[in-house]
C-alpha cells in the first residue's frame, strides 16, 4: 500500500498538505524563521503523529477490553539534537489515564501492545530515537 501526500507552497514559508482523510493541514515556520506562525511545525507534527497513532491503538483496546477510563492523554517530550540536521534523538511518551476504576494491568497491556506490536509510527521512531515509555494512573 502506498500513501501519496501533496504538499503545496502557499508563498513565503507556508505550505498546505493534503491527507487521505480529505482534510488539509497548514504548515508554517515561526516569525523567527521568516514565517507567520499560521501553521503547524513539521517536527512537532511528527510527535503528534506518534501520539495519535499509539493513542488510536490504545483507545481501540480500551473499547475492546471494555475498560472504564474517564480521561486519557499522551504527553510526548522529545529532545532535539544541537547539530544540523536537527532531529529527535530521545523521546519520552507518557500515557496518562484518569478514572475511579482503572484496571492498571489491562491498561498497561494496552499500552504495551501499541508500543511493541501495533503502532507503525512508533516503529519508525525506534529507527532514530531512544524511546522511554511511562504509564501513569490518576485514580479519582
Number of domains: 2
* CATH architecture descriptor text of the largest domain: 2-Layer Sandwich
What overall form do the CA principal axes indicate? elongated
CATH class of the largest domain equals Alpha Beta
User: What fraction strand?
Assistant: 25-35%
Q: What do we call the CATH homologous superfamily of the largest domain?
A: K homology (KH) domain
Query: In this structure, how is the largest beta sheet organized?
Result: 3 strands, antiparallel
Portion of residues within helices = 25-40%
Through-space gap between termini:
44 Å
Low-confidence stretches: none
Reading the helices and strands in chain order gives EEEHEEHHE
Instruction: Tell me how many strands there are.
Output: 6
CATH fold title of the largest domain: GMP Synthetase, Chain A, domain 3
**Average residue-wise pLDDT:** 97
Rounded Rg: 17 Å
- Largest sheet, spatial ordering of strands: 1-2-3
Instruction: Count helical runs.
Output: 3
Helix- and strand-based class? alpha+beta
Short summary of the structure?
By secondary structure, the protein is an alpha+beta fold. The chain has helices spanning about 40-65, 105-120, 120-125; strands at about 5-10, 15, 25, 70-80, 90-100, 130-140. It has 3 helices and 6 strands; from the N terminus they run E-E-E-H-E-E-H-H-E.
Amino acid at each position: 500500500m502506498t500513501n501519496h501526500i501533496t504538499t503545496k507552497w502557499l508563498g513565503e514559508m507556508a505550505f498546505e498538505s493534503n491527507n487521505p482523510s480529505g482534510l488539509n493541514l497548514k504548515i508554517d515556520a515561526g516569525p523567527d524563521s521568516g514565517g507567520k506562525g499560521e501553521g503547524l511545525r513539521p517536527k512537532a507534527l511528527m510527535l503528534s503523529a506518534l501520539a495519535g497513532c499509539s493513542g488510536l491503538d490504545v483507545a481501540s483496546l480500551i473499547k475492546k477490553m471494555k475498560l472504564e477510563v474517564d480521561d486519557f492523554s499522551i504527553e510526548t517530550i522529545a529532545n532535539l539534537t544541537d547539530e544540523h540536521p536537527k532531529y529527535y534523538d530521545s523521546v519520552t511518551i507518557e500515557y496518562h489515564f484518569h478514572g475511579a476504576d482503572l484496571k492498571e494491568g489491562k491498561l498497561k497491556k494496552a499500552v504495551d501492545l501499541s508500543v511493541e506490536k501495533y503502532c507503525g509510527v512508533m516503529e519508525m521512531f525506534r529507527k532514530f530515537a531512544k524511546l522511554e515509555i511511562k504509564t501513569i494512573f490518576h485514580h479519582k
